Amino acid sequence: MAAAAAAAGGGPQPPQPELPAPGLALDKAATAAHLKAALSRPDNRAGAEELQALLERVLSAERPLAAAADSEEAAAAGGGGGPGAAEEEALEWCKCLLAGGGGYDEFCAAVRAYDPAALCGLVWTANFVAYRCRTCGISPCMSLCAECFHQGDHTGHDFNMFRSQAGGACDCGDSNVMRESGFCKRHQIKSSSNIPCVPKDLLMMSEFVLPRFIFCLIQYLREGYNEPADVPSEKDLNKVLQLLEPQISFLEDLTKMGGAMRSVLTQVLTNQQNYKDLTSGLGENSCAKKSHEKYLIALKSSGLTYPEDKLVYGIQEPSAGTSTLAVQGFAGATGTLGQLDSSDEEDQDGSQGLGKRKRVKLSSSTKDQSIMDVLKHKSFLEELLFWTIKYEFPQKMVTFLLNMLPDQEYKVAFTKTFVQHYAFIMKTLKKSHESDTMSNRIVHISVQLFSNEELARQVTEECQLLDIMVTVLLYMMESCLIKSELQDEENSLHVVVNCGEALLKNNTYWPLVSDFINILSHQSVAKRFLEDHGLLVTWMNFVSFFQGMNLNKRELNEHVEFESQTYYAAFAAELEACAQPMWGLLSHCKVRETQEYTKNVVRYCIEALQDWFDAINFVDEPAPNQVTFHLPLHRYYAMFLSKAVKCQELDLDSVLPDQEMLMKLMIHPLQIQASLAEIHSNMWVRNGLQIKGQAMTYVQSHFCNSMIDPDIYLLQVCASRLDPDYFISSVFERFKVVDLLTMASQHQNTVLDAEHERSMLEGALTFLVILLSLRLHLGMSDDEILRAEMVAQLCMNDRTHSSLLDLIPENPNPKSGIIPGSYSFESVLSAVADFKAPVFEPGGSMQQGMYTPKAEVWDQEFDPVMVILRTVYRRDVQSAMDRYTAFLKQSGKFPGNPWPPYKKRTPLHPSYKGLMRLLHCKTLHIVLFTLLYKILMDHQNLSEHVLCMVLYLIELGLENSADEESDEEASVCGPERCHDSWFPGSNLVSNMRHFINYVRVRVPETAPEVKRDSSASTSSDSLSSLHSSRRPKVLQRENSGTAQVFSLVAERRKKFQEIINRSNSEANQVVRPKTSSKWSAPGSALQLTTAILEIKESILSLLIKLHHKLSGKQNSYYPPWLDDLEILIQPEIPKYSHGDGITAVERILLKAALQSRMNKRIIEEICRKVTPPVPPKKITAAEKKTLDKEERRQKARERQQKLLAEFASRQKSFMETAMDVDSPENDIPMEIATAEPQVSEAVYDCVICGQSGPSSEDRPTGLVVLLQASSVLGQCRDNVEPKKLPISEEEQIYPWDTCAAVHDVRLSLLQRYFKDSSCLLAVSIGWEGGVYVQTCGHTLHIDCHKSYMESLRNDQVLQGFSVDKGEFTCPLCRQFANSVLPCYPGNNVENNLWQRPSNKSIQDLIKEVEELQGRPGAFPVSISSETNLSKEMESVMKDIKNTTQKKYRDYSKTPGSPDNDFLFMYSVARTNLELELIHRGGNLCSGGASTAGKRSCLNQLFLVLALHMRLYSIDSEYNPWSKLTQLVEEMNSQLGNEEQPEVPILYHDVTSLLLIQILMMPQPLRKDHFTCIVKVLFTLLYTQALAALSIKCNEEDRSAWKQTGALKKNTCDAEKSYEVLLSFVISELSKGKLYHEEGTQECAMVSPIAWSPESMEKYLQDFCLPFLRITSLLQHHLFGEDLPSCQEEEEFSVLSSCLGLLPTFYQTEHPFISASCLDWPVPAFDIISQWCSEINSFTERHAEQGKALLIQESRWKLPHLLQLPENYNTIFQYYHRKTCSVCTKVPKDPAVCLVCGTFVCLKGLCCKQQSYCECVLHSQNCGAGTGIFLLINASVIIIIRGHRFCLWGSVYLDAHGEEDRDLRRGKPLYICKERYKVLEQQWISHTFDHINKRWGPHYNGL
Description:
The protein is α+β, with helices and mostly antiparallel strands. The chain is built from 79 helices and 30 strands.
């Protein structure tokens, strides 16, 4: 001990490089105990020094870093087992010292006992499965680990499971983040009270050891970081980190010891004295010095200063009072951002240059500098975080730092440290190569810190969190600014972010913005932000960087070469960096008390906008052919205005700027609306697809409420406050359709091509309609908005619940209003929609659960305006109208083609009443009048859509007119004279009846209106000219007193001047440059002349004539009130609510009449003297030609549509008939004329060449077939209990009881004891990997098929199947197939002869059968001559063999023996019969023609098999037939000389014998031969049943039966009495040893019930039924007889009589006895004793096996897939963490087989065998090539079929009937039994290939 102490006490001499002396190493525990004792003395200085010295030596920092720097040399030089040994040794020492001499594990346990586990705090990394419960969460980021979630009670809550993207930590137990009701059982108890105090000596050592340990770690980190010239390579950093892995893991383990250890660690990490002592780098230790220098270098290279000077440091923590001042200083500095002069070039050299440039620019603010550049580390924690950032957030470090968070003191310290390093984090992030990973790790930390409101508030107050965040964001964006090209390219001073920079493209700013949004969600923090004027100014500055980014310029000449995709970055940036913080702030401005905040924001917003307008040099006209979709300042302004009026009761005018500002504000949002119309009119097509993408994103559901909605609201506000004439004319000018609005039939548009005019006019009118009818921000409540949004989405299409949640725009900030799944969402949904449960269509398409609008919604709430506003694709509007039309037709409300319905609007909020003035301004009335006139006169480029909108606007005007009419006449006052000649006043109601007589228009000289006399020009009084030249000159020239030329543009200019004059007192300064002159399009100088048109119409008269025109009848309008005065009193008439244009006109006229008596009178007058509408004076031939052409085109288009529709419906109906696998009714029957005997040969149609004819030798026809290997039969089980999918370790599935396993065991047992060739005839194979043949029923010539395959091979575009493997789709019905089965040239008439019963005795028939079997190749066609037919037969046989794997074909001990082929061939027949039986439900009770009847190819298959079987003739002595029908003498003599006996006939499988016998006969078979074979085999089967029964019962029963039977032996029908036969079988078998040695086995065999005659009869029938079923099926296929239907109990008797086993005279009164079917060919007792003796001779030696072989289990239940649990979570929780059996890791894509429950890795490389991945391998072993797998992580089922696979869909749906592929939504999923049934059905019926359409090759990689 002393020696050790002496060695240790040597003071800080340079540590020796080798390990501590061996003596020390051995005695760590003793040393530790000694030190602990020394330290616990009251005077422990000596002990402390001793310990320090020891640690100094053990934790030397030299050694590992030599290793890190160059591990190869170190490994060569360092003895102690490479570079890791020293560290390991050091760790061992630490563990020993901490434990103070005791065992480390005991120490851990002891510390854990003192853990006050109030918080869970489990930290997880990416891809971990966690839960989020919105019901329990206070913060939207709340998350729980699976354990805490399942331990808590969340039934009925709105929760979901999610895969963590960035990592996270469990919040269970933290009441700041979640409600206590959601805590789990472990964390509910506030357990701090009952946990005892920690004894001092337990953790004493830790307090001494850990500081050194952590310092050592920091030294390693310092050493390892070499600041290179360029950025350090990832590799170097990773190397250092790998070396430090054990140390950090050690720390992490310490944190897991619980609260007691954490508080020690917190002390160590935050203690400033410790840090100072150890790291100051003073002292004489060279190592420490070096390390300190490296630290300083690292600080410096990060662009950070190390403030030695206390003064500079003082700035970092100013008192709260100075903060705002400093910030304002900073704001002033950023104001100078404009002058970017030449500093751009310096940006190349990374952060250094960047820092310089900024320093120059923001020199006036020290505050900001300190935020960005000063770091001073005062504790281990701070330096650890510094290195964590430097090393780009290694996962282990992050986890360690987060694991400490449950300690409250640490949490605060760490948060402050994090904030202190915030700017440094940003700089590192910007330089990082792996910014994605780094972002995730940063958020992993910050979300834990900032989600806690209390903490966020504390840091905001103490550390200027908000200032730091805003400054850091501003700095970050400043690095990628460019000059804005909006408006005035040369002189613009505005700078915007460049969306092409990596910073924006890769979303690098995301973590910082996300933190900012997170802290703004806390009210206390947000309030500080909104009160701080300096911060608001800075923030508006930040937002203005995004104002006008990603500017689009319209390409006018050629298509743009390179389509930039920067718009993604732009939209994401605006949404994340501008809109989301805005929603966060808005959520705190909900009540009246917060008015001040709104005023602040609005004030600084307007200031920023004013600066922006100045910076881009904006006057009054926007630059042409430019558009930016990004105006965040406008949108901030709009949203805060809306909030102010809606929630805070602010007076709108008090926060609005002057008129001039309003005029400027409206320009850019209006420009966007016009550009949308241009983009949809294909005017931007040369800019590529991306511009369409922008237009769509702008209105898309995630963006619309932050983009288009605020824009339209802002326009509504401007419209309600500006002069209406000015606004309307601006709109038409922006949409470039001014020139179109002329009465003349021809005009010339200087700015728009003719083909775009129509859609632009529609766009302008649609925009006005939206502007005037949208009430989203003008008075609708949140619930009404939600309802309107939902109705609009549902009207476009039926929607699933999740897509509806996704499509309904919600404030992006999670804490605001509508949360998905909140009550209002569900309640509104149930009010407007009906749920359509998920249905399954036979075509295989899986329907999800859908919501569809209720009838009353279509009737009253369908709102086309909302639909148009919310559609991303134009086709959705059409879809909504089609659905509406269908509803009206269905409900009988309107038969024709309806127009969009007019919907009453929510009343306007009083603040916005001015909006309705737009409807009552002369400009709009002139436009409406002009358009009505043009439509009536059939001018070109007008559509029904235009008319619809015009009427809509008129109707809106009538609905919103001033009620009083008396003052109408007086309103014509002075200043209005200018177009008094058009309309007297501005009220629509009175203007409607005003007649306009003459109009002067400007037209091209060629126009038909040009008259040569102008005499009328002076005479007309109320004459005017609606005209729109852009040249103001016209005004002067035309200024004669008689006629005013009315120009929209001139009007707008004049109004603009007036407004500016009003706002500027000195009028002389007003002459602003006319910016527009620069851009007026060079008009193609067509001469314009003036013409005067005679109009003599009013709006009312035009409407009435329009009614006539639309209805196509003269005088069709008759005022309804003349008949029924009631109409005027109660005007709400439902008759008018749905309908077309005629209805709309009627509705408008009725409303006009209601509003004024004058109108009513005038309407009546017009109707009295109505005349046909006056066509224009003359139409030139050329015009007529174009009109005709247009009309012809239209007609052709309609015709084409009609043809296409008809074709489509035909195709559809054909596909339905051809593809419908499930229902036989509408199937195309196979063209085989079986029923008509007069046709001698079967006639086949070839679906390729279309000829029909018989199949012949040289040109055979074939059936299109699909051959597939199947193991479905092998999955049958004998017990009824369904097998369940294992969901715990205890439950496992063993395939012992499957049919395949039982048959395998039987075959191998036979092969052990009997002759091989004989064994292969005694059983069938094909239970696994049997070949199933199915056809679609279509036939083709085999040579046609060959050429068809050739053409497929040359066709490049092949989907889903491989021609080289012989796969193709049927040319007619497109069903998948892979072979052709030749049809045998058969004669139908013969068929009938064969079926006639003959009266030969059974003995004669037996002889005939024997002879026929002996005759080799007795086919009508001789096989020896090589005909085409025989070649085809051979090739199809080859196909059949190749369909299944070799292991499923070869069971013989001698490979390639002919017996094997023989066995395989008859087993194919067996497989197909058995499968058909299963498809019929396992019995034949339903009878009738087979469901597969028309598609059955068994007949053809039989002929092919028979042909090949005849090539192998069986030696007559082996032929079982003789054993069945003849008595053989002296059998025993043979046994001696044979090595192995043949299989006793009682061990043979009777069904196999049947198939062998029949396939050995020449085809076609005669019916009486068939019946004869069946009768003979039935006797054998019955004997087997008796033998099995005798084994089943016990000794007493046997002897009793032996007695009773023996008594009756001599009665007349003894051979047909089962009692007699049974007693004889028992007595015969007793001679052998079969019944002996039963002592042990007895109990197992005996059934407890006593056997009654009934139960015995039932047993015998059940034993024989399977054989009868298969035989009846076979008979049905061979001879085409229908199967009778019957009850289940009489199935036996019905089948036996149908097979001819029952004598015809049999009476059915007394209970049916199966024995009566017996017909013995030779005396029964003789043959039975012969059969029994074979068995006796076998049981002499092997009694046990003899017994096992006799009992054949023949009652197999139908095959089923595994039963799945109700809730998907049970599967998921068990399997997603289950490890792979090969590599014991958790697989990335686990899957489970639904047939047998095996757990497999999808695509897992660990389980790959010879290039086959595990799922493919398993599909071959388990299903012979068919696999059904449930992908655990996706909840989807995948089908593997051979070399192809497809995604089938999911059988688990959520509460709304939806799949959740990849578990993205994470809602609870429940089994959908119907879908699972369908899956099982497809598996059993082998129809995966036909029903599922999307197949792809898997290349063995699954």
